[in-house]
């Protein structure tokens, strides 16, 4: 089979460096393109005009990758660690430049393309779901940061307000702090007034106004002067003003994600893994990170499941030299998928007998909790891969491990 022209792109925020190689490896073109509409158009036009078939680049997504795929080019996403390891093949001195990286990528696309997966973009529904779940994750991270700041501010001068409601970032707790941002504001707050506040905001925590007021009054009192209290009052109001729209937008995203995952063709497959309807978000993240392109893991079940488990960080990294053989934690992986599989594993061991058995046997072998969760997550990967390939929801009666455990009286 004839080797075709290949290209490597060293991408950057403002400009990209492109190297095109002939079939025999001799350089054909090396050129830079700006990251704007004109530059991307010229880049794609050049590659298509030269008959380039494969392009290697250090990222799997983004505007540039989308334009390359739209132009009909086969894109090989190369992990930065793989490029770093390949540089010494072509230069012993250890130098680095954008042009040299583009050349290395083009060489990998030319000589080692069979070792890398061609990028297979997911469907529009899956990409939309991924955008929603990742946006929510970013907002939640910001909410946690602001909530920690609010906790610290209240602990510094008014600990009682931090203990009235279970979650300080809940709408009712934020409304309370907006109305009573300092001890001075809450000086005349009594049981009757608090009961009215709870009724107006639809409180459903099951505690009476008297109990909540006792939480507020029993906490230690801060000793701050008038000027400092006013400053801290302003800080509390600022944090509350930042948190309120954030909490609302997370709620909106939750609703959008729930609708999107239920409408997705594979939504039922992943939702079936969870007993609690509230786990909809975890199912959506699992689906969006695995995707819907079955050809991404098309081989025999064991091999494909291992590849998926490796991408998800559930497989250890084996290091072997002479008599020494150790397994280490896998760091280069899809960390979002790893966290989601860990959530699935941890929740499933609470209600699924098979999952509980896998987890307990791992603990009995001396594994700590995180290690046992990864072992269980790896076991779940095989089940998920089979469901995903067949497009069928989880059925305990078809789960071989679960059937064997039931037959053994486990």
Structure description:
- The protein has 16 helices and 7 strands.
- The chain is an alpha/beta fold.
- Strands 3-2-1-4-5 form a 5-stranded mixed sheet.
- Helix 5 runs antiparallel to helix 9, helix 12 crosses helix 15 (369-390) and helix 14 (353-364) packs antiparallel against helix 15.
- The longest helix has 38 residues, at 226-263.
- The two termini are 55 Å apart.
- The model has no long low-confidence stretch (mean pLDDT 91).
Q: Largest sheet, order of strands side by side?
A: 3-2-1-4-5
By secondary-structure content and strand pairing, the structural class works out as: alpha/beta
End-to-end gap:
55 Å
The number of helices is: 16
Over all CA atoms, what is the radius of gyration? 28 Å
Helix content: 55-70%
Rough shape?
Answer: globular
Which regions have little confidence, pLDDT < 50, spanning 5+ residues?
Answer: none
Percent of residues in beta strands: 5-15%
Would you count the extended β strands for me?
7
Could you describe the largest sheet, including whether it forms a barrel? Answer: 5 strands, mixed
Residue-averaged pLDDT: 91
Short description:
The protein is α/β, with parallel strands linked by helices and 410 residues long.
Tell me the layout of helices and strands:
Layout: E1 6-10, E2 15-21, E3 27-34, H1 37-49, E4 54-57, H2 63-70, E5 74-77, H3 80-86, H4 98-111, H5 124-157, H6 171-179, H7 191-200, H8 209-218, H9 226-263, H10 267-271, H11 280-290, H12 301-311, E6 317-321, E7 324-328, H13 335-348, H14 353-364, H15 369-390, H16 400-407
Parallel strand pairs: 1-4, 4-5
Antiparallel strand pairs: 1-2, 2-3, 6-7
Helix pairs in contact: 5-9, 5-11, 6-9, 9-11, 11-13, 12-15, 13-15, 14-15
């Amino acid at each position: 089979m004839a080797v075709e022209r290949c290209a490597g792109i060293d991408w950057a925020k403002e400009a990209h460096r492109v190297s095109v190689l002939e079939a025999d490896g001799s350089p054909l073109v090396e050129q830079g393109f700006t990251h704007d509409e004109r530059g991307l158009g010229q880049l794609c036009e050049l590659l298509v005009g030269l008959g380039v078939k494969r392009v290697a680049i250090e990222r799997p997504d983004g505007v540039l990758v989308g334009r390359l795929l739209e132009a009909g080019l086969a894109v090989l996403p190369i992990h930065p660690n793989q490029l770093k390891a390949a540089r010494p093949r072509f230069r012993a001195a250890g130098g680095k430049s954008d042009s040299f990286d583009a050349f290395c990528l083009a060489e990998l696309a030319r000589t080692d393309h069979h070792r890398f997966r061609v990028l297979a973009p997911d469907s529009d529904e899956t990409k939309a779901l991924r955008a929603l779940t990742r946006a929510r994750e970013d907002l939640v991270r910001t909410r946690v940061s602001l909530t920690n700041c609010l906790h610290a501010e209240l602990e510094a001068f008014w600990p009682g307000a931090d203990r009235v409601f279970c979650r300080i970032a809940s709408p009712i707790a934020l409304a309370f702090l907006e109305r009573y941002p300092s001890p001075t504001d809450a000086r005349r707050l009594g049981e009757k007034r608090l009961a009215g506040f709870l009724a107006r905001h639809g409180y459903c925590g099951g505690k009476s106004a008297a109990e909540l007021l006792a939480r507020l009054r029993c906490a230690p009192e801060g000793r701050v002067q008038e000027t400092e209290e006013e400053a801290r009052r302003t800080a509390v109001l600022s944090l509350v003003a930042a948190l309120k729209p954030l909490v609302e937008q997370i709620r909106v995203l939750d609703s959008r994600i729930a609708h999107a995952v239920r409408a997705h063709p594979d939504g039922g497959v992943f939702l079936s893994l969870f007993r609690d309807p509230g786990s909809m978000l975890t199912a959506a993240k699992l689906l969006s990170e695995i995707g819907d392109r079955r050809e991404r893991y098309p081989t025999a079940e064991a091999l494909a499941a291992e590849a998926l488990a490796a991408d998800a960080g559930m497989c250890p990294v084996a290091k072997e030299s002479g008599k020494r053989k150790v397994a280490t934690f896998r760091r280069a992986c899809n960390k979002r998928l790893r966290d989601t599989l860990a959530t699935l594993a941890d929740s499933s061991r609470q209600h699924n007998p098979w999952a509980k058995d896998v987890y307990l046997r791992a603990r009995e072998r001396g594994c700590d909790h995180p290690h046992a969760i990864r072992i269980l997550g790896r076991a779940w990967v095989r089940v998920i891969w089979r469901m995903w390939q067949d497009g069928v929801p989880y059925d305990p009666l078809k789960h071989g491990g679960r059937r064997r455990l039931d037959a053994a009286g486990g």
